[in-house]
Amino acid sequence: MATLTVPIELTEPELKLLQTLVYQECGMFFDERRSHFLKDRLQRRLKVCQLDSFYAYYRLLTSREGKTELAQLLENLTVNETSFFRNRPQLDLLQKTVLEEILKRKQERRDFHLRIWSAGCSSGQEPYSVAMLVADALAYYYLRNPLPFDMPVPKPIIPPPWKLEMVASDISYAILRVGQQGLYTEQQMEPVDYTTRLRYFEKVGDKYTVKQQLRDLVQFDFHNLKTEFLPRRTDIILCRNVMIYFDEAEQKRLIDKFWNCLNPGGYLFVGHAESLFGLTQKFRMIHENNGTAYQRLEAAT
Ligand SMILES: C[S@@+](CC[C@H](N)C(=O)[O-])C[C@H]1O[C@@H](n2cnc3c(N)ncnc32)[C@H](O)[C@@H]1O
Fold it and tell me: How far apart are CA 43 and CA 38, in angstroms?
């Protein structure tokens, strides 16, 4: 006969303690609307840890020995939904307007270093999509303005003298490993057209793998947006569908940090359901053909 396991009661004070701890650790805020998700994940972790109360679990999480379990809990609370070329109008704006403007500006200064950061990159579709868009934009640029020297063979996907540094970060180690592996199912590849597949992917069994040259461009790193130092001198930051899980105070703090991380005139992209409206005066909005971006304003301090 199957034995019924009765879930251990999570009291209101315990819930508050754990809610606050999660917020302090990663910025994710589980309000009433989303607290059932938090409760469900807490029940699961309590079972795995074989503890008999949520207060004991809280004590574990806040102890030195509980660091690994804390990371596990945070991984279990993240939503990793993503796709290749997500929000196409926004990426068109990135490729056709933003990138053109940055490349022109940098070329005039003979600065050929491009730095892009996908913050909350999930399983890698976002940084790989952007790296492909940059490579295509540069290839097209040199088709119109041929280089005064022969391209090395095999042809690099980022033509010299340009260098692309694509940083992809997330709070989940498990999801970063998926991105690093760069192996995607037919279903995940659905938004990728066949010319792009030919150029940047190889077929391995019934899956597709990102070609080595493209994979080498993307550097996956663990990074907690709430607590850790952010990279500086960045030209473009994508933080899409991440801040939606943070409360307003944390969103404001993060936008401020992004402003500091961007080069003068750099751009920030947020998710389609997110906006900087009412959160900052330090960016100007650019809206074109249903795509939105935010450019850092210099008068701000
Ligand atoms: C819904 S996915 C968005 C992925 C991608 N940016 C996109 O729009 O397709 C949100 C990602 O943010 C990550 N995340 C949540 N909180 C984070 C934090 N404090 N620091 C870094 N990454 C975080 C999650 O692990 C998850 O992979």
Answer: 9
**Per-residue H/E/C for 237-273:** EEECCCHHHECHHHHHHHHHHHHHHEEEEEEEEECCC
pLDDT at 3: 56
Dihedral over Cα of 49, 54, 59, 61: its sign? positive
Residue 161, judged by CB atoms within 10 A of its CB (0-12, 13-18, 19+), counts as: exposed
Cβ atoms of 240 and 120 within 8 Å: the answer is yes
pTM, 2 dp: 0.94
Strands 234-239 and 201-204, by their bridges, are unpaired
The third-level CATH classification (topology) of the domain covering 88-296 is Rossmann fold (3.40.50)
Whose CA is closest to atom 3 on ligand 1? 241
Q: Which atom of ligand 1 is nearest to the CA of 125?
A: 9
User: CA-CA distance, 89 to 272, in Å (whole number)?
Assistant: 10
Q: Is the CB of 178 under 6 A from ligand 1?
A: no
Q: Is 256 in contact with 283 (CB distance < 8 Å)?
A: no
Kindly report the protein residue whose alpha carbon is nearest to atom 11 of ligand 1.
Answer: 120
Mean local confidence (pLDDT), 132-158: 85
Q: Parse the chain into domains and list their residue ranges.
A: 12-77, 88-296
State the CATH architecture for 12-77: Orthogonal Bundle (1.10)
The CA-atom distances, in angstroms, between 255 and each of 47, 195, 269 are: 37, 36, 11
Which atom in ligand 1 lies closest to the alpha carbon of residue 75?
25
For 210-263, the pLDDT digits (tens) are 999 999 999 999 999 998 877 889 999 999 999 999 999 999 999 999 999 999
- CA–centroid distance, 216 to ligand 1, in Å, is 22
Residue 293 tokens, joined = 């971006």
- Closest CA to ligand 1's atom 9: 82
